[in-house]
Amino acid sequence: MVRDVFSNRNILAISMTTSLWSLVQQGWSPFWPKYMLDNLGATVTIIGLITAITTAERLLFQLPGGILADRYGRKKIIVYGTLIRTLSPLIYFLAPSWEWIIPAALINGMASLYMPAFSAIVADSLPEKRRGAGYGAYNTITNIPNMVGPLIGGLAIEAYGYEFGVKVFLGLQVVVGLIMTVVRHMILHETIESRHRDSKAPLVPTGKMFREFPETIKVMIVVAIIGSFSSRLVFDLINLYALEVLLLSPAQLGLINTAVGAVATALALPGGMLSDRYGRKNNIMLGRTVSPISQGLVTLAGGFNAYFVVRVFNAAGIAVGGSGMEAGGPSWNALIADLVPSEKRATVLGTIGTLTAVVAAPGSVLGGYLWDTVSPQLPFQLSMVIGLVSAALFWLKVREPKAEEKLGVEPVG
Length: 413
Prior knowledge:
Order of helices and strands: HHHHHHHHHHHHHHHHHHHH
Largest sheet: none
Structural class: mainly alpha
Number of strands: 0
Number of helices: 20
Oligomer: single chain
Distance between the termini: 34 Å
């Protein structure tokens, strides 16, 4: 299975470049909120506001990005988006105060232009009859850096301090981004034929566009909106909680994130295979149940051992079930690919990304505000409740297609 997946040049190029980016990113991103607090003068509310800006930018760019990918092809959008994305860590590196992070957040949001094309080219390039296992194999490889990066970053920051440690990894991130741009330009090949491209598709959502979506996709959009709001309440806070409330060291947090990466890597392929054998819905439901419960359990953790167990429990549920409360993950993407033809896939992915951003963006601000004004625990408790509502809606309303409806051939009219 793994050999079949990575014999495709698109999957090989994307997985290798994504892995390299993740390896470096995991060296600094778990410690970035703490760095902003101590070195750039931000508050937790400001950190949430900056994340909200990034998320809201997807409202402007992700849906047009999906439509452009279906109109002009995946490759161009991916290459340009990768280059744009490289500018954010450069600004982070140069930033003397938190105000500088705002333009970087805007650019980072703009880079989401390429995410629907990225997801679509992966779906287009995987073997149709084993999409779940294919996504699992892909995620296994791209999760490997998550086993190494956090521990290296934690040890470096503990040895040399937050400022030097974070900036070293940010500098490397810029270099890696440039390498990714060149490699993707040289190796990726287009997956959507010119005869299937809709050159007249509008660049803004229309009523007709939504009416053409399968009913299951419409329900999944609502589920993704609720779940993403729940997730964004604590998106920036999960690592900060360990450092500020539980008083873990950077090395301890790095070790925990490494364990999380190891669990995700080990279970990604089995999770994809289970999705193919027993259905997407059961897998997705597992992730959407375990993840919110884990957010509530974080507030009960009293130290390293309990926090470690909660994070690993969450990682196991997400690895098997997908991406927890967010849209995405092997089973989620495989279900979309089962429902939507290739020529409309990027548009659907872009629509989901855009509409979730509308509601999810305020979640980051609310989470930071509740941390600053009420307690660090409240955002996690609220996230748990909202996330479980999202899971219940998914279970009750989403219909998985029968075998004859799969492989992206279900009518969308």
